[in-house]
């Protein structure tokens, strides 16, 4: 526990010197895509030619982990299983069989102690491992690798999951009940590019809930952990390879994912599955400044104002929410533009959350490029 606290990103800050050590440089200020998405050798969208059953998307992360283990590249995978208590809760595990790797499919949208299984790998004297985690896990791992000799002698590969808006574990069921008509059968959920929350159920059906029609009480920043509201590495910029969905085209009956190869180790991981992928270039228009500016006043106000209570009523009727979502999915940012919008939205929200609620952490947590992005919108620092 004490080691984790010493290496915690909320003690050491996001990115900065850590990014420079990994890549030999910081982000280029004249490259707006790199400023948002981090340093990468290659970016593209893709899906598996033969998607894995029960995977949240097509199963690229799980397949990479399979191939790394089967090829002998790694001896174990530090990852998460679903808790027996709740299918959305996590249980850290060192997966050392294909069956254990399979069982890690699907997101767990609560804070998760992934690196706890790192201790198991060390005790078992493994020399080659794969770690699958969110940005906060990868940041701590990078610090561990510098501080502890037993990790310096271990070959470690990392797959980064984009991560934001995890919720307090003790509030998750309360939140799900306010989102879904059938919370007991929900098995996957994600805020998608059509401005709806997609909730997949155990019978295979997908419930789509307009973001605009959620109860006002779900807009309370207090339902999210302070650590997540102070995150400035949405796209897991210190991983060897990041696999998410933000810039992928949303199409019926397809589950395209967004892949960012960041390091040579990431290239090796991608090579394991290259022949199994159908690849597509990034699509969409980059510019979304006007769309962002329409929301900034509301974002800043909601971070500054700490309301005593939030209404349990929906913001707007569901049918109106579906209409708004459809209109925005037609006229709003798509592909690379949606990724641009989503990253900037969260950077702005989190900057003002820290500024107004944890001002003493502002200089510690905020990377230099975030302030540059705020200045693009002429927002006060």
UniProtKB/TrEMBL annotation:
Residues 44-118 form the Coenzyme F420 hydrogenase/dehydrogenase beta subunit N-terminal domain. Residues 127-275 form the Coenzyme F420 hydrogenase/dehydrogenase beta subunit C-terminal domain. Pfam families: FrhB_FdhB_C (PF04432), FrhB_FdhB_N (PF04422). One of its GO terms (molecular function) is oxidoreductase activity, acting on CH or CH2 groups, with an iron-sulfur protein as acceptor. InterPro entries: Co_F420_Hydgase/DH_bsu_N, FRHB/FDHB/HCAR-like, FrhB_FdhB_C. It comes from the Bacteria. This is Coenzyme F420 hydrogenase. It comes from Prosthecochloris marina.
